[in-house]
Design goal:
Blueprint: E1 2-5, H1 17-31, H2 36-39, H3 41-47, H4 60-73, E2 80-85, H5 94-105, E3 110-115, H6 120-125, H7 134-150, H8 154-163, H9 166-177
Parallel strand pairs: 1-2, 2-3
Helix pairs in contact: 1-4, 7-9
Amino acid sequence: MGSFFLWNLRTEEQKSQEGLLRAILYQVLDSEPALAEDLLPKMWYEALQGDDVKLGLSSKGEMTQAFQELGRLFTTTRKFCFFIDGIDEYSGNYMDGIAFINSQAANSNIKVVVSSRPIAPCEDAFAAKPMLLLQDLTRDDILAYIDETIGSHPYLTILEEESGSALQIKTEVADKSSGVFL
């Protein structure tokens, strides 16, 4: 199992495909160190050269190859599940991230669970996949929270009396939350 949370406000590694690959690959190898020789043969060879060898980071190409190999290594003996949260905060080309996810999900031994705010590239790419729309499940709770926190505010009460638009404002706040409590 491996997981990664893309976070646009942090370092490049926390919002890039390279960071995603490195983090999940690390988690796979941390749980199954014996896979290192097959998944990262260049690094494995370098590590065998001696104690004073300083290993560099694997390139994006090497890590991509490692994931392709991971899908080929096992037929029925091993299953993997990757959780990728916040794909909407990906800093690269969304299609590259989507292609990686689809390549992993195409393997019957790998399951991928992805979360994202509703953005067009993800909605289009994953439209035929099973999905859960969080905003549909939390909308009533968010509306209740909004009503409790700002519904009785004096300015909103005055606005409702003068123009009757307080309900519209509360509804717009709920819509903009996209199912997320902050």
